[in-house]
Amino acid sequence: MSLPKDFLWGGAIAANQAEGAYKKDGKGTSLVDILPSGKERRDALFHPQKALETNFNHYPSHEAIDFYHTYKEDIKLFAEMGFKVFRTSISWPRIFPKGDELEPNEAGLRFYDDVFDECKKYGIEPLVTLNHFDTPLYLVTEYGGWRNRKLIEFYERYARVVFDRYSDKVKYWLTFNEINMLLHIPFFGGGLIISDDENANQVKFQAAHHQLVASSLATKVAKEINGDEFMIGCMLAAAEIYPYSCHPDDMLKSVKENQKQYFFIDVQSKGEYPSYTKRLFRELDVELELEQGDVEILKQYPVDFISFSYYSSRLTSADPEVYKTNKTSGNAFASLRNPHLEASDWGWQIDPVGLRVTMNNLYDRYQKPLFIVENGLGAVDELKDGIVEDDYRIDYMREHLKQMIEAVDDGVDLMGYTSWGCIDLVSAGTGEMKKRYGFIYVDIDNEGKGTGKRYKKKSFEWYKKVIKSNGEIL
Questions:
Q1: Which residues on neighbouring strands pair with residue 127, listed in sequence order?
Q2: Do the beta carbons of residue 82 and residue 75 sit within 8 Å?
Q3: What region does 40 belong to: left with phi over 0, alpha with psi -120 to 50, or beta?
Q4: What backbone torsions phi and psi does residue 86 show, to the nearest 5 degrees?
Q5: What is the distance between the alpha carbons of residues 325 and 343, in angstroms, rounded to a whole number?
Q6: How distant is the alpha carbon of residue 22 from its chain centre?
Q7: Which domain holds residue 367?
Q8: How many domains are contained in the chain?
Q9: Does the keyword field hold Transmembrane (predicted)?
């Protein structure tokens, strides 16, 4: 089976993990800008009030890898690998520093003009995420984040400005990054600070409703501005959830857990809340507040394609005793340890076949084109004599790409593949630099120290051959 000739090979980064220059040219503060690195970061993510009140020693997003100033050098390296597409995000507070202004920041708009022009110079299509975990901090502290319906208006204004500005430069758009992360890390996903005396589920699902309406309104605006020339996608943190055993209770638990992760995409793709949410909301004591027109806007403006990240599968069990001794890490999701799988340096279980399973299930469920926009291995790389021998990364990606191609052979309609962190960047979950994903090594350490110099890893030439052969040579 061969991939389509127009298959979009490339790589992905996020503004808040790469750009740095966090106060440059009028940029406002994002919620990520108050997060530290290392062990303190997780505590700050789950206790964001502490992050607001604490002065930390190091804020990795403030400098990151300085993509703001090195984008020409970096995009040139992407072009050398043969990228057809480059996924990045626009920093919302670069365009609207506080988030609620009526007029955008022109300097911020010019920066992305320059980035997209540089991509076009090499024939690279930008794939742009509107909100990748960097909601303006002012919207968190003054409005309560996405629990406040006013953010729909602010987001729609932001979307209209960038859609109009880049209508002839960007074709592919994503409305929210890993939108289901709102349920797992609500500060990251929705700028939510939830007090102990609140029904957390009510707050999170109401915020989710606001984001879903905002996503549909953004799709509406996009179609008004550029018709079918724009393709608007949603983005899911995907990981097929297997049952821990073949016990019927475990099987049922896996069904229910998968429904929770697909809930957002069900709405964005099908345009309505799925039937299973009636019982889910009842059991969680959630009662959504909908305003007139919400149901219609969701129905009229579903997304054009389904994009997702995939790093590992997960396990679940109906037996709480199993969780006491068998938990492991994942992409912000706790999971049970799968005895059939190896794990990365950070405990993420490596399951290439799970990518094929996930792709088949997503396509069967939605019958819309898929786009893998994040996949890769976070590992500790050693730079020695200007070289990183990262065969472990090549092995990881080769096995995942094999299964990706098998899924296409299964009948899945796949638009493209962008590996995560194609150049080393700050880890979202840990704030570390030592957790590296890239084909390009960046000489910066966990404290933000280093030359910033770029080095091609062994995987750089490997991925170049993969792209040139359109996946025939792995």
A1: 87, 172
A2: no
A3: alpha
A4: -130, 115
A5: 17
A6: 20
A7: 8-468
A8: 1
A9: no
- Which pairing describes strands 454-456 and 241-243: parallel, antiparallel, or unpaired? unpaired
Instruction: Quote the DSSP letter at residue 370.
Output: E
Helix (H) / strand (E) element for 61: namely none
Give the burial string for 174-190 (b: 16+ CB within 10 Å, else e): bbbbbbbbbbbbbbbbb
Is 111 part of a structural domain of the chain?
yes
Q: Alpha helix (H) ranges present in 197-335?
A: 200-226, 248-270, 276-284, 294-300, 320-323
Residue with tokens 């590296």: 436
Task: List, for residues 4-44, the tens digit of each pLDDT value.
Answer: 999 999 999 999 999 999 999 999 999 999 999 988 998 99
Q: For the domain that residue 439 is a member of, what is the CATH number?
A: 3.20.20.80
User: Is position 474 within any domain?
Assistant: no
The DSSP code for 379 is: B
Q: In which band, very low, low, confident or very high, does the pLDDT at 265 lie, cut at 50, 70 and 90?
A: very high
**283 in catalytic set:** no
Which residue in the list 156, 374, 382, 399 is annotated as catalytic? Answer: 374
- Asked if residue 148 has pLDDT above 60, the reply is yes
Buried b / exposed e along 257-286 (16+ C-beta atoms within 10 A): bbbebbbbbbbbbbbebeeebeebbeeeeb
Q: What is the tens place of the pLDDT at every residue in 306-320?
A: 999 999 988 899 988
* Residue given tokens 């490997």 in the structure block: 462
The pTM (predicted TM-score) of the whole model is 0.96
